[in-house]
Structure formats: structure tokens, C-alpha cells
Amino acid sequence: MARPSLKRLNKLLDPYYVTKGVKFRLGDVDPHDTGGLKSEFKAEAKALLAEGVGWLAEEQERLYAQDRWSVLLIFQAMDAAGKDGTIKHVMSGVNPQGVQVHSFKKPSDEELDHDFLWRCAKALPERGRIGIFNRSYYEEVLVVRVHEELLARQKLPGATAGKGLWRKRYESIRAFERHLARNGYLILKFFLHVSKQEQKKRFVARLDDAEKHWKFSAADARERRYWDDYAHAYEEMIRNTAAKHAPWYVVPADNKWYTRLVVAAAIVDAMERLKLRFPRMDAARRKELAVARRALLRE
Ligand code: ATP
Ligand code: MG
């Protein structure tokens, strides 16, 4: 497939693409933004998304055949921002053998008995694969920062737990991602930025629709009390961990069709820049295949 026309939406990405954190302000991205596209664009957005998804499926085969790069997609967001739906839609065309999705929940006792990167390091995609982290080690500077009491369960020795903890965690994360990038990981990080009003609307919709009741969690609704603390933690996280080799995309998430479009465009854009190709055959390999072919036909 030729370069997808989703590519022409590249420019949409600019305001959301953060590689240098110093000047980043969460308030600069409006959750309701649709990049100037009107809601009439929805149908076309759907078609573009479908095309991008098709392209991604082919690109994943090249990734797998070439067996050099790994792709790590990290998703972070407040509840009901649409992480699950976005992952489902954007990855819908890809061969399930080529993608691994990991959802990180509250850490288990075994996980708490290790450093905070351990469980994610164990779940990293192999070369040639796409790995999706639905939440990640970033929870360690988000929910844990908002609810510092969670630190008590982490059994950190006194000297390492005190002052400067968050700064040190950002440092660990930066070093980890730098290490991964140096070893062939394409890292893309998505923060789905939903507004407090839109989250309320989605929670209420979950209560109003019997088929969505299962999705509603009273605990999630109670977390709204800490909205400003989360906003601050997200902003600090992005300011401290955005890098050229591990950019953050701050994706407006009040309109699902737009969120999905932006995420797909970002993945297409970044993977295209890898210039993945099916491995070339050298003369020896060509000869080997010819010999195999003759042998098969002689049987
Ligand atoms: P769903 O859409 O199914 O609700 P979810 O990702 O919200 O998906 P839950 O099981 O509802 O899944 O929530 C996971 C919870 O685990 C979140 O509240 C998250 O903040 C918490 N969590 C994840 N990682 C950590 C961590 N390292 N320390 C403490 N809590 C964590
Ligand atoms: Mg949840």
C-alpha cells in the first residue's frame, strides 16, 4: 500500500507532539480540540482511520520480517478517556501474533517486591513486535504521586524513599527509555487528555445504560476529587519525560473519533520514518531457495 493519506494529517500532530518538556503546559492543549475539523468530518475520519489501520497491518509485517525494531506504545489517561477503545480501534487490523497488549493494574505482592520498572521490563515487546502498555510505569508518578500513602506498600528502604523521590523516578524513567531507544525500541507515549466535564458525561452514560453498567466504578468517580492533583502530576510527568526518542503525544480526548484519528496518524507517521523494508535476499539465499525448490519438485 502506498503511503496512506492519513499522512497528510501530519500537521494535525504538531501541537500535541512534545519532545522537550520545559515549556509544556497542560492548559495549552484543549481536550475538546479537533484540529479545525468539523464534526461533519467524522465520516471521512472513519475512512482515513480504516486506511491507516490497513497500512499499519502491512507495516507490522515488515516490522516482523525485518526483525530489528520493537515498537512500544504507552497509553496513559484518566478513567473513561477512551484508552481501551482507542487501542481496540487502532490495532484492529494488525495480526494478533504481532502485538502484545499489557494492562497494568494495582501491583501484586510479587511486583511490589521488585523495583518499579520490573513488571514493565518483563512485558516489553520482542524485536519485530508491537507492544502496547495500557497504563505503565508512569502510574508510579501519577496515581502514586496523588496518593502518596501507596508508597508505604512499596517497602522502599528509608534512604531511597525520602526527599526528591519523584525527581529520581523521572530520572530512572528517562534513563530506562534512553536505554530502550538505544537498543532498537521506537517509543511513543500517548496521554489521552479528557476534560472533567466530558468524564462526568461518560460516567453518567455508564449509569444510564444497562449494558455499560459493568464499566462504572464508584471508585473511579470518587477519584474526580483529585482531578487537579492528577492534572498537576500529568503535567510534571510530561515536562520531565518528553524526549525526541520518547515523545509524548497529548491527544485531545473529548471527541473519540478525533482521538483515534490522531493516535493512528501519530503511529503511522513515526513508523513510516523507520523506513521498514522486507529483508533483501542476497545471492547465497537466492541460491538456497532455488535448490530447495528443485528438491521439492523432484519429490
Ligand atoms: P478499565 O477500563 O477496565 O477500568 P483500568 O486500566 O482503569 O481499565 P482498573 O483495574 O480499573 O483498570 O484500574 C487499574 C488501577 O490500577 C488504576 O486505578 C490504576 O491507577 C492502578 N494502578 C496501576 N498501576 C499502579 C501502580 N503502579 N501503583 C498503584 N496503582 C496502580
Ligand atoms: Mg478502571
Short description:
The protein is of the alpha/beta class and about 300 residues long.
Structure write-up:
The protein has a single domain (4-298), classed as P-loop containing nucleotide triphosphate hydrolases (Rossmann fold). It has 13 helices and 6 strands. Helix 2 runs parallel beside helix 12 and helix 3 (83-90) crosses helix 12 (256-272). It has helices spanning 10-13, 42-66, 83-90, 109-112, 118-122, 143-146, 158-161, 165-182, 196-208, 218-222, 227-241, 256-272, 283-298; strands spanning 17-18, 70-77, 99-103, 130-134, 185-193, 248-252. It has 299 residues and is α/β, with parallel strands linked by helices. The chain is globular, with a radius of gyration of 21 Å. A 6-stranded mixed β-sheet has the order 1-6-5-2-4-3, sandwiched between helices. Adenosine-5'-triphosphate (ATP) is lined by residues 79, 84, 103-107, 134-135, 139-140, 143-144, 150.
Q: Which descriptor suits the 3D outline? A: globular
What is the CATH architecture term?
3-Layer(aba) Sandwich
The ordered string of helix (H) and strand (E) elements is: HEHEHEHHEHHHEHHHEHH
Task: Please describe the biggest sheet, giving its number of strands, its sense, and whether it closes into a barrel.
Answer: 6 strands, mixed
- By CATH, the superfamily comes out as P-loop containing nucleotide triphosphate hydrolases
Based on secondary structure, the structural category is alpha/beta
Tell me the domain tally: 1
Return residue spans where pLDDT drops below 50 for at least 5 consecutive residues.
Answer: none
Average pLDDT, all residues: 94
Q: Percent helix among the residues?
A: 40-55%
